[in-house]
Design brief:
This protein is 26% helix and 20% strand. With 203 residues, the chain is of the alpha/beta class. It starts with a helix and ends with a strand.
Length: 203
């Protein structure tokens, strides 16, 4: 999840100048790991992204742990919160990314969302693992369109939603014909609940 958020954050910043991204996890340790390992790792391994955001293809990444400011005016703020959103006050952003949201106090999340109030093109990303049926991310899921990914079998063309019945001796298999599934191949996201609302993506 955090790898996706880091890649998406850098893509947003690289493709849109003066884009502000705000990322928050539930602890200082997780926030530091996201900044140093996830963000800096992607920056160090992608000369093209480095050229766009840092105006250099090689060299050290010299910046603050919690503030990434780029040459095109975009930037990423990394923070953390769990039971109190005070650390997030006073910021403005276009993209809000909350990681491990199931461990956050749901009453504090609307406070964090206020950082998007001035954006002309706001977006929200909530990621986490619903450890129980009684948490914020599970509540959001139940009110949503419940998008799931389906993989198409090359042999019989049946769409497969991956589950325990897809476990084969050599890899994931089609539940219809038993053929091997190419999970890097053709796939589609399908809403499994017919309602308007948030569109989360479940893997």
């Amino acid at each position: 999840k955090s790898t996706f958020l880091s890649a998406h954050s850098l893509t947003k910043c690289a493709t849109k100048s003066h884009r502000r991204v705000f990322y928050a996890s539930t602890s200082e340790k997780q926030a530091r790991e996201f900044a140093r390992v996830k963000l800096n790792e992607l920056l160090s391994r992608s000369p093209r992204i480095r050229n766009i955001l840092l105006n250099k293809s090689v060299g050290d990444i010299n910046d603050s742990v919690f503030e990434k400011q780029f040459s095109n005016g975009s930037g990423i703020t990394v923070s953390y919160m769990k039971e109190n959103a005070d650390r997030t006050r006073g910021y403005s952003a276009d993209d809000l990314m909350l990681d491990e949201v199931q461990d956050m106090d749901p009453s504090e999340i609307p406070i964090v969302e206020e950082i998007l109030s001035a954006s002309l093109d706001p977006s929200r990303f909530y990621t986490g693992t619903p450890k129980t049926l009684d948490n914020h991310i599970e509540h959001k899921w139940q009110l949503s369109t419940k998008h799931e990914v389906f993989f198409r079998c090359k042999s019989c063309r049946k769409l497969n939603s991956i589950g325990y019945r897809n476990i084969g001796k050599k890899g994931p298999i089609c539940t219809s014909c038993g053929g091997l599934l190419d999970i890097a191949g053709e796939h589609i996201w399908v809403p499994t609940y017919d309602r308007t609302g948030p569109e989360p993506y479940y893997l």
